[in-house]
Protein 1
Amino acid sequence: MNVYDSLRMVDLMRTLGFEQTDTPDDADMIIFNTCHIREKASEKIFSELGRFKPLKEQRKKQGKDLILVVAGCVVQAESAEFMNRAGFVDIALGPQTYHRLPELLRRLEQKRKQRIIDVEFPAVAKFDFLPAAKSNGVSSFLAIQEGCDRFCSYCVVPYTRGAEYSRPLNEIVEEARQLAETGTKDLMLLGQNVNAWHGEGKDGTPSDLSRLVKAVAEIDGIERIRYVTSYPSDFTKEMIAMHRDIPKVMPYLHLPIQSGSDRILKKMNRRYTCAEYEEIVACLREACPEIALSSDFIVGFPEETDDDFEQTMDLVRRVTFAQSYSFKYSARPGTPAAAMKDQIPEEIKTERLEKLQALLIEQHAAYNAGFLGKTMHVLLEDKAKKAGYLLGHTPQMQNVVVKASEEFLGQIVPVRITKTAATTLDGELS
Ligand code: SAH
Ligand code: SF4
């Protein structure tokens, strides 16, 4: 979502005549887009900003300026403290007000360098004020839903991104069309709780994610559709059926479970059990046998015992994952879990994370090894670092490095897999 927001800010700044540069030395303005989800991500911004303070001072000495803007959830969550810790920042804004950047820049000029902060949750969503979307390549993100009302006990999202909001279907289809017309073939529909998206179809009837996906699939040029991140208990039969019935829906699903212990899931305020999760997975695999499953895990949640953790390991062994993201629990200020007794010591968190990741990496490697020698349809999206090679994705969202010349960029081509590892495949045009 932050990548999407950053690209939308670039689109917005282009309307004022700005262009993106590759080096800070060329920049008149630098925007930092921040993440508050875990402490590590959150703290990063202060060290990053520290690096740019001298550059700003140097510009001042030359009679010029470097405008420093900080956007995103760290600002939203910590606005006042943020400005105290980073007083040389010119503009600070939250994730729901970045459409106001042009106006804030004008105010900055008028106020002759007084700092500006904007962390409102506006009544009219920012999407109404953003310029037409433009593809940056063949793969694009499209935010369809934002915010969250679920209040998992460890999570800052409901506080930083605000209440759940679904963009209207017509607006999403229009943005998807703009992206298709400017070169997008592969579309990732985004939302903090993407399968909670709801709206009205063209005929005014209630519509869920499966109807939206159907509408997007009708757009010429869009060849691959994925959506992230889904919440298990918002998953419906219709969404399972779309994996079977709509060829453009790719066989990949990111469905975070967080823990394999029902006791911990309850404390996390996750509203499903492991059995319910496994039932959804079984139905999905029946509807779409080739589906690749990915998940998120948190280890070391308050009160997690060795037994709870072993239950997570057992769940992973039973379900098996093609990809995953796993994290040590990070206490976030203001969330209920941060105030829970029995916080788990860091070294136990580290130990559990290492064990879990070793198992998951083994599963990812075994999953990928099953594709050795097979031919897969790969969308070639980018140049690789190594000359003469391109990067792409399989329908199952595996990364592939392919020996191919640049003329194949942007095409979906058959690739024979010649080597596999836990996070990448190597292949050659077949
Ligand atoms: N809405 C999605 C997840 C969004 S946050 C869902 O409910 O599944 C992305 C991931 O960050 C989460 O799945 C979780 O695994 C991780 N995460 C969120 N808060 C965290 C915290 N306080 N400590 C550690 N990991 C956290
Ligand atoms: Fe955070 Fe996801 Fe829970 Fe919402 S559903 S509170 S985004 S973890």
Protein 2
Amino acid sequence: MQDRRLLSDPVTPRPLETGLEGFHLWPGALSPEAQAALLAEVLRGLEIAPPYRPITPGGRPFSVRMSNFGPLGWVSDRAGYRYQSTHPETGEPWPQIPAVLLELWRTLAGWPEPPDACLVNLYDADARMGLHQDRDEADLTAPVLSVSLGDTAVFRIGAAGGGPTRSVKLASGDVCALSGPARLARHGIDRVIGGSSSLVPGGGRINLTLRRAR
Ligand code: MD3
Ligand code: FE
């Protein structure tokens, strides 16, 4: 089930310049119809690979629940952070990356090879993600593409080397690309604005990040 019109605008939308080189944001890139179609595919995948709560290497549970799609999935436990081909609780391979996400990557990522990993982060109204860098991928020059569904998040991002951070809202249907200097930016989710979208049944936010893990 795929929406014929992937992007809200039939022409490739122009990214919003954010002031941080390599951070591009396409607000409302996915039409409401495309968001609903993608959500249905994501929920189908989550039946095969149920969201679970990872543990930090230090032993603390994440407030975000996670799953993955694609050949490789990002996991965290007492042994550390890594990519692996199976769900840590079911032992089963991750489901396929939805075709609409592969199409988004082709359109917006500016990278010749397809993603081999898609981390799925699920936020309820109380979930947060502390400031961090994403550096578990083999080639840190490959971009990351993020798609937001459901409630709006207050996202924070700053340069890799430290210094000031800025706050950016990520709403349902927004897509952002992190490449160049922004690829190693420090970033996190300060909070989720409960009740800001009616897309996800029961409320909450789902973020999908497409990556090149290997
Ligand atoms: C900047 N996810 O999965 S998405 C993550 O909304 C992650 O769930 C957040 O941080 C979320 O690692 C933020 C935007 C994002 C994703 C990946 C990035 C920003 C990024 C990688 C490098 C730099
Ligand atoms: Fe991250």
